[in-house]
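Subject: Sanity check before I submit

Could someone independently write out the structure tokens for this chain? I want to compare against mine line by line before I put it in a report. The sequence has 175 residues.
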Amino acid sequence: MSPEPSLKYVVVENAGYQGEQDVFSHPDFRVAAKWLKDRYTDFEVRTCTSTSPVICQMAIVPMKSSPTPEMVRYSLAWRNPHTQPPGPRVLHAVLVTRGEKCPQEILDLWSPGCGYAVTWELVTQRPIRRWRKEARARVRSKTLERRMTAKFPLFAVEFIAQELEKRPQYYEGDY
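---
Independent answer below. Compare away.
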């Protein structure tokens, strides 16, 4: 078994925009670049200067694959809600690892009162942690008991028994 490479190149669609998504990743830069070149024209890959939302930014971004650092995107984006931007909504965006300061290239483009703002957003997502069946059942049962005891202190035991009889699978943590 070969060790996992330290870099992974990711083709990112709609880089710098809401709803960004990874569309391809590979440990070899040449393979990622060839995939990008085969599927998109140079016009689509270039950072657009028009306000047309049809033209997307594309980028090949090196990311460490093990352990995965949290990635952050600093961008210079239009944040004046009352007017349309004079150019693109996102002037410039840079991916960095979490904890690094804002890159100087973004700060150089920004000026106070211009309508654009330096923004920060977390790009990487942690894996979803699922509850074990037993833990889910325990929490549901305790919540039921607490709710019934608060609402009906004299008849809580009877109402709890009725609810457990009515929905046994739910309180066993099946779904």
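---
OP: Matches mine. For the report I'm noting this point. The first strand starts at residue 7 and ends at 13.
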